[in-house]
Amino acid sequence: MTSQRVGLWLVGARGSVATTAVCGLAALRAGLAPPTGCVTERLEGVSLPAWDDIVVGGHDLVSTPYEKRAEHLARAGLLPHHLLAPIVPALRDADAEVRDGYHPTTHRGPQELAVRRLAADLETFRFKHDLARVVVVNVASTEPPVPVVPEFASLESLRAALADPARAVLPASSVAACAALLAGCSYVDFTPSTGVALPALDELALAQRVPYAGRDGKTGETLLRTVLAPMFTDRALKVLSWSGTNLLGGGDGATLSDPARAASKLRSKSDGLASLLGGPVTAPLHIDNVPDLGEQKIAWDHVSFEGFLGARMSLQFTWTGLDSALAAPLVLDLARLMAAAHAAGIAGVVPELGFFFKDPLGWDEHRFDRQSAELVSWARSLDGRR
Amino acid sequence: MTSQRVGLWLVGARGSVATTAVCGLAALRAGLAPPTGCVTERLEGVSLPAWDDIVVGGHDLVSTPYEKRAEHLARAGLLPHHLLAPIVPALRDADAEVRDGYHPTTHRGPQELAVRRLAADLETFRFKHDLARVVVVNVASTEPPVPVVPEFASLESLRAALADPARAVLPASSVAACAALLAGCSYVDFTPSTGVALPALDELALAQRVPYAGRDGKTGETLLRTVLAPMFTDRALKVLSWSGTNLLGGGDGATLSDPARAASKLRSKSDGLASLLGGPVTAPLHIDNVPDLGEQKIAWDHVSFEGFLGARMSLQFTWTGLDSALAAPLVLDLARLMAAAHAAGIAGVVPELGFFFKDPLGWDEHRFDRQSAELVSWARSLDGRR
Amino acid sequence: MTSQRVGLWLVGARGSVATTAVCGLAALRAGLAPPTGCVTERLEGVSLPAWDDIVVGGHDLVSTPYEKRAEHLARAGLLPHHLLAPIVPALRDADAEVRDGYHPTTHRGPQELAVRRLAADLETFRFKHDLARVVVVNVASTEPPVPVVPEFASLESLRAALADPARAVLPASSVAACAALLAGCSYVDFTPSTGVALPALDELALAQRVPYAGRDGKTGETLLRTVLAPMFTDRALKVLSWSGTNLLGGGDGATLSDPARAASKLRSKSDGLASLLGGPVTAPLHIDNVPDLGEQKIAWDHVSFEGFLGARMSLQFTWTGLDSALAAPLVLDLARLMAAAHAAGIAGVVPELGFFFKDPLGWDEHRFDRQSAELVSWARSLDGRR
Amino acid sequence: MTSQRVGLWLVGARGSVATTAVCGLAALRAGLAPPTGCVTERLEGVSLPAWDDIVVGGHDLVSTPYEKRAEHLARAGLLPHHLLAPIVPALRDADAEVRDGYHPTTHRGPQELAVRRLAADLETFRFKHDLARVVVVNVASTEPPVPVVPEFASLESLRAALADPARAVLPASSVAACAALLAGCSYVDFTPSTGVALPALDELALAQRVPYAGRDGKTGETLLRTVLAPMFTDRALKVLSWSGTNLLGGGDGATLSDPARAASKLRSKSDGLASLLGGPVTAPLHIDNVPDLGEQKIAWDHVSFEGFLGARMSLQFTWTGLDSALAAPLVLDLARLMAAAHAAGIAGVVPELGFFFKDPLGWDEHRFDRQSAELVSWARSLDGRR
Ligand SMILES: NC(=O)c1ccc[n+]([C@@H]2O[C@H](COP(=O)([O-])OP(=O)(O)OC[C@H]3O[C@@H](n4cnc5c(N)ncnc54)[C@H](O)[C@@H]3O)[C@@H](O)[C@H]2O)c1
Ligand SMILES: NC(=O)c1ccc[n+]([C@@H]2O[C@H](COP(=O)([O-])OP(=O)(O)OC[C@H]3O[C@@H](n4cnc5c(N)ncnc54)[C@H](O)[C@@H]3O)[C@@H](O)[C@H]2O)c1
Ligand SMILES: NC(=O)c1ccc[n+]([C@@H]2O[C@H](COP(=O)([O-])OP(=O)(O)OC[C@H]3O[C@@H](n4cnc5c(N)ncnc54)[C@H](O)[C@@H]3O)[C@@H](O)[C@H]2O)c1
Ligand SMILES: NC(=O)c1ccc[n+]([C@@H]2O[C@H](COP(=O)([O-])OP(=O)(O)OC[C@H]3O[C@@H](n4cnc5c(N)ncnc54)[C@H](O)[C@@H]3O)[C@@H](O)[C@H]2O)c1
Ligand code: NA
Ligand code: NA
C-alpha cells in the first residue's frame, strides 16, 4: 500500500477547508511545515499512504484560482505569508484538477446524467494519475435538511427516480456521493449534508465494495462537548443546562446565516448532547454570522450543573478556533485512512471513524475518549486484514 | 462484606470537606438527598458498604460543633437550609466521635507518643462501634512541603527518630498516616501534604497488610486539565502555554494564602501538566485568597495552542465550583472503595484509585479517561479477590 | 416634602422585582439591611421621601402571599434566610394592599371601565393611608409589541376607543398607565411594554400635571454596554461586531421564551447600541430561557474591534447577575425621585431619569456617564423648583 | 501652529510601541491607513500639528533596522503585510534619526555628561529638521522602582549629584527626561518608570517653561477598570474583590517577567483601583510572561460584588489586545497635544492628559469619563491661550 499513489477528491474544492488542505499538503510534501493536527502521524505501526503519494483534485462551482484563495487564507491567519511563494507550483497543479460540480439550478436532464458526469471526472482523474484508488471527501457548503422520500429506501427505487428527467430527487451532496460510489471511490461526508446517508446509497456502497464514513467534521464546540460531557457523567455530576453560542464569519458563516441550512448543523451539533448526558437537558444553541471574524470561529458554552446536596456550579468556556486549520488536517487523515480501509477490503459504513465526526454514521458513541481508543485499535488492525 | 459496618475517620474532621461529608452522609442515610457526585453509585455489580453501614469520627484541632459548621455551609450554598433540622441528631452523634488531633506546637515528648495516642483513638473507635475496618482520610489543612531526610527511607530509621524526644521528624499528616497504619486502618491522603508518601510508611503499610491511596483530591482546575489535555494530544494539536489562576476563599483559601503551603498545592497541580502534554509548556499558575468567595472556587485557564500550518488558537474556561460539594462525595466513595480493597486483602499503594487525585500515588497516569476506565475495571475485580 | 408620606404602587406586585422591593423596603425600615444598590442614597443634599414614609400596594393577577414569594427569593439567593422572620408583619401589611389587576381575557365591557376601576384602587389607597402622592411603577410581565393604531395619536381618539365595548385598544400596561394618570399619580415603566409611551397618554399626563418616566430598567447586559461602548468611541476604536447571549430563568425567563414577548425586550436592548456606537454594527442577540438558573441572569457579550493599522482585538465579558437584586433598589429610587419630581411640579416625560432605563423616554442619550451626571444635577435642582 | 513642523523623539525608539508609531505615522501620511485609535482625530475645532508636520527620531540601545522590526510586527498582526513595501523609504529615514541611548552599564564619567549628550542629540535633531519644537516620549523598557533619595528633592541637589563621577543617581528614564527638559523639549512618560516624576525635574520643567505629562499608557486592563469601576459606584453596588491576571509576550512580557520591574507596573496598575472604588478591596493581580502570545496581551478580571440585600453577583471579562496597536496612536496623539500645549505656553505638569495614563501625574482622578471630558475641554481651550 505504501508504494501506491492515491487520489483525494474534494467536493467544494475551492472552499476554505479544501484550500487549506491543498496548501497544507503542498507544504508537508515540501517539508515546509510539520504535520500539526494530523492524527495519522501519531498512529505508529499503521501503513498509510505517504504525503508524497497523495494527488488532489475536486469539484466546485466557482473558479477562483488557488493562489488567490491562498492569499485570502494568509490574511486570515490560516497560512503563514512566507509559505505562499514556495507552494505556487503545487497550487497550479491543483487548479488543473478542479472540475465543475453539480448544481440543480444549472443542470438539465435526468439527475442520472449528473451522476455519470461526476463519476466520469473521477475515473479520468484516477486513470490520468495512475491512482490505486480515490477518496472523495465532501467539504462543500452545508445544505438544508432534505425531506425523506420513499425513493431513498432502496437502490432500485432511487435508480428509477434518477432516470426521471422531471425530478431532482437527490440533493447535490448525495449526487456527489452517488457518483463517488459508482466510480468505485470511497466517500467521506465532512459536512452535515445528506450525502451518502441514505439506505439506497448504503446498498450501492456494499454492492460496489467501497467504504464510506461521516458525518460533519468535529472541530470546535462539539469536540469540546464530547470531551467534557463524559467528565460530568463519570463524576456523577448532574448537568442541568448546556447553553451555546457560535460566532462565525467566512463562507461557512454566510451559508449558516440561512436558518434552513443552520438547521442541519444545529441538529448534528445537539443530537449528541442528550446521548452524551444520558438524557435531554435544556440546551439552547445558536449559530451567528459575524463576518468580521473571517475564518475564526468563537464558541461560548455555559454549563450549569449540580453536585452533592444540590450544590450549584458552572463551567463556561470560550473556544477561539480557526476552523479550517482544524478541519484540513483531518481531511488529509481521512484520505489516508479511507484509502487504507478500501485497500483492506472494507465496504459500507466505517463506524470506527466516529472520532472525526459530530454525527458519527454507524455508531452511536459520542464520547471522545472511546472514539479515540477505537480509532487507534481499528487502524492497527487494518494491516492484518489485507 | 455488605453486612459489615465500617468506620470513616476524618483527619481535619471539622473542616469544610469533612463537615460536608458528615452532613451528606446523614442526608443520604435519611433518604433526604440523592447521591449526586458519588461515583460509587455508578459502579454496578460491585459490593461496597451501604451508606447505613458507615460510622464517622475523626481528629481535629478545633471544637466548633457540627451544627454551627453546618449553618455556615448552608449560608455558603453547600447545604440546603431545609436539611439543617433533620440531620441535627446525626451531627450530635458525629460530634461525640471527634478527638483532639496532633499538632507539633502543643505536643510534648517523642513523636512516637503522638502516633500511639492517635492509633489508640482509632482502635477505641473501631471497638466501640464494632467495625469490621476503618478507613482514615486526611482532609486537614494543607501543610508546607517537607524536606526529605534520610530517616524517611526505612521503617527502622524512622522508628528511631520517632523515639527521640528532641525531634519532630514527621509532619502532622504523616503522624496521622503512621497512626492509621499502626492501628491496622487503611489510609487516604486527600490533601497534597506528605502524609503516607514516604518509603518508611509504605513499608509499614505492607507489613500491616493495609492499603493506602492518594494524593490531593482532584476536583476543579486539575480535573478539567486532565480531561482537556488528552484532547489536544489525541488531535495532534500543539499546546504552547497553559496559564491558570485560582481564586478561593474559605479555610483552604486562608491556608493557601501562605506561599509555603501553596507551594505543595501548586506543585501537585502542575506536575501533571507536563506529563499530560508530553513535555513542559509555559504554565504560570496562581492561587489567590479572595475571602468574599466563601466556599466557592473560581478557576480561569487560558490555553494557547497551534494547529495546522502554525495557526494560532485558544481555549479559555472559567470553572465556578463549590469545592467541598465536589470533594465530600469523593471522600465517601474512597471510604467505600478502601474498605472493599482492605477486605479483598490488598496491601500497600492502590494505584487504581488515581482517578480521584491530582498527584496519583503509584501510577504516573493523569489522563482522566484512562483513570476512569481503570477504576471501573479494578472495582469490578474486587469481589473476585475476596 | 420629607415629612409627607408617599405611596409606591406596583403593577405586577407579586413578581420577583416587586417582591424584592417590598421585602427590601421592610428590611431597610427595620435597619436590617444597608441600602446597597440604591442610588438615591448617594445623592447628597437632595430632599427625598425617607424609607419610613413609603407605603406599598399594587395590582397583580395572582394571589400567592408575600411570605411564600419571599421564601422562594431566599432559596434563590435574593434574600438572606435570617431576614425572613423579622419582615413577616410588613409582608402581611403589603398583602392587604394588593388588588386584582386588569387582564383582557377576564375583563368585560368597555376598557374605560377597567381604567376607572384601577384608578379607583389608586385613589382608595391614597386616601386610606393619607398619602401626599402615589408613584405607580410597572413591573408586570413584559408584553408583546403592540401595533400602532391611529387612536393612540390623541387623547380624544383614545377616549372614544376606550368607550367602545367591542374593542380592547390598549394593552394591559397602557391601561395601568392610563389609570395612574387619571388618578393623578406619576407613572414609571420599568418594563419594555408600551405603557405610557403613547402620544395620547403624554397628553393626559400634561393635562393631569403628573410626571412619567421609562422605559425598561437597565440592570445587566445593557448597563454594561452603555458603560463600555463610550470607551471604544472615546478611544477612537472601531467596533466591528457586538454579539450577545442572555440566559435567564425565573418568571421573566419563562415570559421571554415567548418570541413575541422577547421581541419587545430585544428591540429595547439593541436600539441603543447603534446610537452608542454612532452607527449600526453586526449585533446578534439572544435571550434564552434556562429554568435552572432561577433568578440568575447570565449574559455573555463578545465585542470584536479594530485598532491602529487594522489590528484585530476583542473584549468579552460574562455578567452573572441576580436581576431582581439589581432592579428592586432602582424601583425604590424611582419612587423617591418621582415623588420629588411630582412635588416639584414637573409634568410629562422626565428625560433626566434616562440613567435607569434601556430605552430612555424623552432623551436619546444612552451613554451611562452622561446619564449619571444628568441625574445628579437634575435631582439637585429639584428643591429649588419647589 | 498648523504650519509648523514638530519633532517626536522616542526613547526606546526601536521597541514595539515605537516601531508601530513610526510605521503608522508613515502609513497615515501616505493615506494608506485611517487614524483608528487616534483620539485627536475626534477633537474637532482644535489646532494640532498635521501628520505631515511630524518628524520622528529617538534613542535606543539596539540597532535592528526598522524594516526588520516592521516585518516582525506584520507577523504579529500589528501591521498588514501589504503596508510593508510602501513604507520602506519612511522607515529608512527614521533609521537615520536613531541615536544611542543612555545605559548605566556602558556610560563612563558623571551622569551630567550623559544628560548633555542626549540633550545635544535633541538639539541637533531640532536644528537639522528646522522644528518648531520637539516632544520626547519615553517608550523604553520599564525600569524597576527606584528608591527615593534626598537629592531628588531639588534641582540644586540633583545637579550636584549629577556632577559626581562616582554616582549614577538617576535611572535611565530620568536621565532621558532631564535631557529633554534641558534641551527645551516637552516630555511624556508612557511607561511606569520614574522618568520626570521627581521634584527636581518638575522644578527644571518650570524653569525651562516646558510642559510634561505621564505616566504609564492606559491601554488594557486598567483602561477597562477605570471605565467599569465608576459603574459600580454610580449604581451603589459594593465591589468585594477585583482579581486580575495579565498574560503577555513580546519585549514587554520578557521585561516584566523580572519581578523587580513588574513591581513598577503592578503598583501603577493597582494604585488606581482603591481610588476608583473609594477604598481598598481584595485585589490580587498578576503579570505573567507567556512568550507564545507575541505582541498579544490577554487580561482576565473577575469582579465579585454585592447588591441589594447582600445578593452576590460577579462580572468577568477577557481582554485580548494588541498592546502596541493601542499604545502607538496614543503616542502620536500625545505628540500633537504636547506640541500644542508647549506652543500655548503651558509649563510643568499637564494634569488634563490623565486620560492617557494609568498613573496620572498631577491629578488623582482615575475615572475614564471624567478624564475624557476634561481632555476635550482642555484641548478646546488651547487655541485661546496662544
Ligand atoms: N472545521 C470546519 O471548518 C468544519 C467542520 C465541520 C464541517 N465543516 C463543513 O465543511 C464545509 C466546508 O466549509 P468551508 O469553511 O470550507 O466553507 P466554504 O464556504 O469556504 O467552502 C464551501 C465550498 O463549497 C463549494 N460548493 C458549494 N456547493 C457545491 C456543490 N454543489 N458542488 C461543489 N462545490 C460546491 C462552494 O463554492 C465553496 O467553494 C461546510 O459544509 C462546513 O459546514 C467544516
Ligand atoms: N475540593 C476540595 O475541597 C479539595 C480538593 C483537594 C484537596 N483538598 C484539601 O482538603 C483539605 C481540607 O480542605 P477544607 O476546605 O475542608 O479546609 P478547611 O480549612 O475547612 O479544614 C481543614 C481542617 O483541618 C483541621 N486541621 C488542621 N491541622 C490539623 C491537624 N494537624 N490535625 C487534625 N486536624 C487539623 C483544621 O482545624 C480544619 O478544621 C485541604 O488540605 C485541601 O487542600 C480539598
Ligand atoms: N432587572 C430586572 O429584573 C428587570 C430589568 C428590566 C426590566 N424588568 C422587567 O420587569 C418585569 C418584572 O420582572 P420579574 O422578574 O419581576 O417578572 P415576574 O414574572 O417574576 O413578575 C411579573 C409579575 O407581573 C404579574 N402580571 C402579569 N400581567 C399582569 C397584569 N396585567 N397586571 C398586573 N400584574 C401582572 C405576574 O402575575 C407576575 O407576578 C418584567 O417585565 C421584566 O422584563 C426587570
Ligand atoms: N500598550 C502598551 O504597549 C503599553 C502601555 C503602557 C506602557 N507601555 C510601556 O511602554 C514601554 C515600551 O513597550 P514595548 O512593548 O514597546 O517594549 P519593547 O521591549 O518592545 O521596547 C522597549 C525598547 O526600549 C529600549 N530601551 C531599553 N532601555 C533603554 C534605554 N535606557 N534607552 C533607550 N532605549 C532603551 C529597548 O532596547 C527596546 O527597543 C514599556 O515600558 C511598556 O511598559 C506600553
Ligand atoms: Na476524555
Ligand atoms: Na463611563
Automatic annotation (TrEMBL), chains A, B, C, D:
Listed InterPro entries? Myo-inos-1-P_Synthase (IPR002587), Myo-inos-1-P_Synthase_GAPDH (IPR013021), NAD(P)-bd_dom_sf (IPR036291)
Indicate the segments forming the Myo-inositol-1-phosphate synthase GAPDH-like domain, all copies. Answer: 220-324
Q: Name one GO biological process term.
A: inositol biosynthetic process
MF annotations from Gene Ontology? inositol-3-phosphate synthase activity
Gene3D superfamilies given in the database record: Dihydrodipicolinate Reductase, domain 2 (3.30.360.10), NAD(P)-binding Rossmann-like Domain (3.40.50.720)
Report the domain of life of the source organism: Bacteria
Protein family according to the UniProt entry: Belongs to the myo-inositol 1-phosphate synthase family.
Among PANTHER family, the record links this protein to: MYO-INOSITOL-1 PHOSPHATE SYNTHASE
Supply the name of the protein.
Myo-inositol-1-phosphate synthase
Q: Look up and give the organism this protein is from.
A: Actinokineospora fastidiosa
